[in-house]
Amino acid sequence: MTFDRLSDSRMEEAILNYIKAYNAKDVPAMLALLDDQILFENVSNSSGTTVTTTKEEFETIARQSLSYFSERKQIIRFSVLSEESAAVEIDYQATLAQDLPNGLKAGQQVQLRGVSLFERRNGKFVRISDYS
Q1: Using one digit for the tens of pLDDT, what is the confidence trace for 107-118?
Q2: Cβ-based neighbour number of residue 130 at 10 Å
Q3: What is the pTM of this model?
């Protein structure tokens, strides 16, 4: 994992905590890092765009996705951080636990590279945008 030298340690810590919770499928730990009015976007070449605008909507999607994967992992490749925003290049690896509507089958490995943008205000994430 690489963070640039000008990184803000609070932003770095928050992102590392979010990814650790994501990898552990720990939805309550993920939610603890979010503002009530979190804008979450997942923009994927293969499955379209998902957008939520509240913590409750984010929780619904996060809990639904738990059953899709028997394991999943995000690995930070590189990031540029400031006090309130960050751009993070991420490798994503997962094993499907069930067949998906897009034709992928249970047991298949999924590997993607993407970029996630994070914004924080008052110690909470107000935006997370994933692009893959």
Answers
A1: 999 999 999 999
A2: 20
A3: 0.89
